[in-house]
Amino acid sequence: MAQSAHKGITAIPGIRVGHATDLEGLTGCTVVLCEKGAVGGVDQRGGAPGTRETDLLRPLHLVQDVHAVLLAGGSAYGLAAADGVMRYLEERGVGFNARVAKVPIVPAAILFDLDIGDPKARPDAGSGYAACRAAIDTPVAEGNVGAGTGATAGKILGPGRAMKTGLGSAAVELGGGLVVGTLVVANPLGDVVDPRTGEILAGARSLTSDEPADTLAVMRSLVGKAALKFASSNTVIGVVATNARLNKEQTNKVAQMAQDGVARAVRPAHTLFDGDTLFALSTGNKRADVNLVGAYAAEVVAEAVARAARAAAGVGGLPAWRDLHAEE
What we know:
- About 25% of the residues lie in helices and about 25% in strands.
- It is α+β, with helices and mostly antiparallel strands.
- It has one domain (about 10-325): L-amino peptidase D-ALA esterase/amidase (4-Layer Sandwich).
- Helix 1 (about 80-90) packs across helix 2 (about 125-135) and helix 5 (about 250-265) packs parallel to helix 6.
- About 60% of the residues are buried.
């Protein structure tokens, strides 16, 4: 599979990415800007989503193009960061033409990170605006940055036995200039695994050591069955983009197929305690089969989830993959 260097989602022409990172509060937000407009779609799975402007992305709705997608920490409070993205775009005359005003279309999704840093530290409108001002089209920063600043994985034994994850990005070139890329923040209840080998990269740790507890195995135990009654506040959120020319129905299909990548790299995925949400953007005019785009969207999502674990650094008393594999 020919990779688009290391740029990640910014390998798609017209896509810029910006982060606002609070390393003290351990939270932040990330914006994916597509100011010229992109046909948008969404697929939301799991039982605990926190989202904004998702209904308009589905077929049978008026609006076709979106101008940015925001991913944020801070739980539902973090949705306020989208207001700053709207202000940034409005200042530049970007938005849906509603005659008396241009209204920027900014779908958003959040994750719960209040239990690792300062629970009063949350991305706000100022954070969203700052992320837009920082947006660039060079290789995407990964790990403890933006919406990935407070991301963790493997919380079935409680947040204190989880591991630090973060934000990852990946892309693939499919020939003829066709590119599919993604940016994902991994904050699941389950474990992040290498999609090729099944190795646990980040997840629940044993009660007595840093060895993997294996969330699936824990779920079958009496401890796991009891813990599931109190599990909450997890999700994988992200954006898939392509320079293929897709209509709204096809873009939603790409978002749906891309969720297979979450299932390949997170074990288990799409639980009642996860809000797993993936947005899809079609920005270009490359002719392509939607099945091809969707199939490789799943591939790059799986890769990006794994990269989110490998790129993270331990903070807040939680180790990351690199901390436990320092000699490798």
